[in-house]
Amino acid sequence: MSDQKDNLIIFDTTLRDGEQSPGVTLNTEEKIQIARQLSRLGVNVLEAGFPVASPGDFNAVQRIAREVGPLMEGRTGDGRVNQEMVICG
């Protein structure tokens, strides 16, 4: 048997798939706010958007990667999550 513990990886697509719902449009600040909350919830990997779709999407994914990815608030001390959130697009 291995000494390694089982790990659950949470891969969230809210910011990419959410905008594909009819009537949903998020600006960059709203996306950053949502990404911060997902980080606090312990999401491991965040699919932040589709950067080739538009300059606005590129900017949003870039800002989320810079501003939210390295945040550790709420991600340590409880034994669940102790690493930065991975941002992909």
Automatic annotation (TrEMBL):
Pfam families: HMGL-like. InterPro entries: 2-IPM_HCS-like, AIPM/Hcit_synth_CS, Aldolase_TIM, PYR_CT. GO terms for molecular function: 2-isopropylmalate synthase activity. Pathway: Amino-acid biosynthesis; L-leucine biosynthesis; L-leucine from 3-methyl-2-oxobutanoate: step 1/4. Its EC number is 2.3.3.13. Keywords: Acyltransferase, Amino-acid biosynthesis, Branched-chain amino acid biosynthesis, Transferase. Belongs to the alpha-IPM synthase/homocitrate synthase family. This is 2-isopropylmalate synthase. It comes from Coemansia spiralis.
